[in-house]
Each structure stands twice: as structure tokens, then as C-alpha cells.
């Protein structure tokens, strides 16, 4: 419904003050202070609003705009006009209210507002409310309603479209990487090099050690190695974290059932979520070690027989 088709009761055109008038302020209503003081306060309020780098308005409980900054005015906001009609372009009010306006050339008796508006909740509870992911005007907005008095609130919205797109792209990338890591036959374990707590484990490592992913998330380096080998294991961990070496061979690992297996751990240091980590790739070499030990024993027996 275009501007020209709006009924006079709905249109609320600006008369004595232009849409860019800077004297509108909730603090000036009903005041007996000198006119110059009121104008100065209105000017300062407007400067404060205009300093915000996103659309911002002071609005009464009945959705009448009292003041709007430059960005909000450029998007259609008009002083002494309904925010839902000018700024919201009547796009987001309930369908039945749109029909009532079309049929009767006036707003419904109880008024109307955008379906996503949380102003009533903010004013009733005297607490700021927000919607961090509001879709409007083909953009994503972090939207806030902040009560200033019993019937006036500050409404502003931050365009977070690009940030949300970046976050979504990062999530998709993380999901792809996790799918790859989860499907790897090698055990993968990521440990914080400072706290030595586990950050990530893949299913292959869980199977190798007999723990669930949830259990390992509560554990650290000291929990998966025999106590008598821990000093050596930690020295290897530190050497890998500092970049002195990448491969730690035949590291004893303690399974949940108490048995010990041996693993070659090839590690690369990495920064994950801003934290220094060791990314370890575990290859179970227990059978190889047993075979080598059996071969050594057999070779020793052979030498004894020959002697």
C-alpha cells in the first residue's frame, strides 16, 4: 500500500516540524523550563542519536516516533509518525491489521505494531529486550528495545548481515572439516598445550582408547597414559608443542579397561579458538611392537642355541 493510498488518520504527515527537526525529545514534554534550555537539550539528544552508526529512534508506547537519527530518517522514519508505518513501511504489521486499514481507512481501535516488536515487553518489565537475529528489509539485525521512562523507549538495530554470513560460512567449514576428521581411520586428539586438557577427539581415537567423546572431553593428557610413563610422555608433549619434534614413537596409552596400548603420535602445533594446541594423530602400533618383541625374543633364543 503506497503513501498516497494511506488514509489521513494513518499517514501522520509532519507539519510544523520537518522530518529532520532536532527539537523533539521526551524530556521536553510538559516542561516549564526556558525555551532556549529545552532547545539545547533537544539538540544534544539529537546529536547523541546521530552519533550512533545504526538506525535509532526514541518512540512512545503508542509507537509514535519522538526523535530519530539521520540513518533512521534516511530509512523512512518521521517525527510524530508511527514507526511501523514510516520506518517499517507497513510491511511488518499483522495481516488482519493491514486488512482493517484497507477496509476502514483507519488503524484498528487498539492500534498496531510490527509483529516482531518487543517494546511492550520492555516497557512492562522495565528491562531492555532484544532479538539478536531479526530478519527485515532483506537484512539480519541485532535489534534492541530499551525503556527510558514508563512510556518512552530507545529502539535501535545493528546490521549484522555480513557477520552472520561469515559465522555461517565458518560453521559450514567447521562441519566439513569435522566430517573429514570424524571419518579418518587415524585417532585424532587435540589438546590445549597450556592446560593439557582435551579440546577435540574423533571417533577413531574413542574406539582406540575405549572412551566416549563426552568422557574424553572431561579428561587431559595425564588421564590416558600409565603413571610410571607420565614424566616421559609430558616431556614428549612439550617437545612437540615447542616444535622441537613432530613424531613421538611408541607412546604408552592407557585404555579405559586398564590395558596398555602403544601409539606413534605425529603432532602439529596449531592455534584453535585463540588457544595454542597440539593436534595429535595416533597410530596404534601395539601389534607391531609385540611382533618386534617376539622377533627379538626368537632371535635371542636362536643365538643361545648356537652358543
UniProtKB/TrEMBL annotation:
Q: Which SUPFAM superfamilies does this UniProt record tie to the protein?
A: PYP-like sensor domain (PAS domain)
Question: Basic and acidic residues: which segments have biased composition?
Answer: 8-20
Residue intervals of the PAC domain: 247-297
Pfam families documented for this protein: PAS_9
Residue span(s) of domain PAS: 173-216
Which PANTHER family does this one have? BIOFILM ARCHITECTURE MAINTENANCE PROTEIN MBAA, DIGUANYLATE CYCLASE DGCP
Q: What name has this protein been given in UniProt?
A: PAS domain-containing protein
| The species this protein was found in | marine sediment metagenome
Amino acid at each position: 500500500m503506497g503513501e498516497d493510498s494511506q488514509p489521513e488518520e494513518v499517514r501522520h504527515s509532519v507539519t510544523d516540524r520537518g522530518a529532520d527537526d532536532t527539537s523533539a525529545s521526551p524530556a521536553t514534554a510538559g516542561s516549564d523550563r526556558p525555551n532556549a534550555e529545552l532547545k539545547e537539550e533537544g539538540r544534544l539528544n539529537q546529536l547523541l542519536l546521530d552519533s550512533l552508526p545504526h538506525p535509532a529512534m526514541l518512540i512512545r508506547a503508542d509507537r509514535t516516533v519522538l526523535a530519530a537519527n539521520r540513518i533512521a530518517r534516511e530509512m523512512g522514519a518521521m517525527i510524530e509518525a508511527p514507526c511501523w508505518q514510516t520506518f517499517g513501511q507497513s510491511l511488518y504489521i499483522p495481516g488482519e491489521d493491514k486488512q482493517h486499514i484497507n477496509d476502514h481507512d483507519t488503524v484498528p481501535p487498539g492500534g498496531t505494531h510490527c509483529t516482531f516488536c518487543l517494546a511492550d515487553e520492555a516497557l512492562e518489565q522495565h528491562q531492555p529486550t532484544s532479538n539478536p537475529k531479526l530478519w527485515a528489509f532483506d537484512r539480519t539485525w541485532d535489534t534492541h528495545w530499551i525503556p527510558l521512562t514508563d512510556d518512552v523507549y530507545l529502539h535501535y538495530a545493528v546490521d549484522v548481515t555480513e557477520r552472520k554470513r561469515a559465522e555461517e560460512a565458518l560453521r559450514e567449514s567447521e562441519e566439513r572439516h569435522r566430517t573429514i576428521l570424524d571419518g579418518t581411520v587415524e585417532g585424532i586428539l587435540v589438546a590445549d598445550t597450556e592446560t593439557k586438557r582435551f579440546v577435540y577427539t574423533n571417533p577413531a581415537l574413542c574406539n582406540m582408547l575405549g572412551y566416549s567423546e563426552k568422557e574424553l572431553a572431561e579428561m587431559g593428557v595425564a588421564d590416558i597414559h600409565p603413571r610410571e610413563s607420565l614424566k616421559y610422555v609430558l616431556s614428549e608433549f612439550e617437545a612437540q608443542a615447542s616444535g622441537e619434534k613432530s613424531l613421538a614413537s611408541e607412546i604408552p596409552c592407557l585404555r579405559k579397561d586398564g590395558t596398555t596400548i602403544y601409539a606413534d603420535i605425529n603432532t602439529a602445533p596449531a592455534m584453535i579458538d585463540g588457544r595454542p594446541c597440539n593436534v595429535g594423530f595416533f597410530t596404534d602400533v601395539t601389534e607391531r611392537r609385540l611382533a618386534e618383541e617376539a622377533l627379538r625374543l626368537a632371535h635371542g633364543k636362536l643365538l643361545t642355541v648356537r652358543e
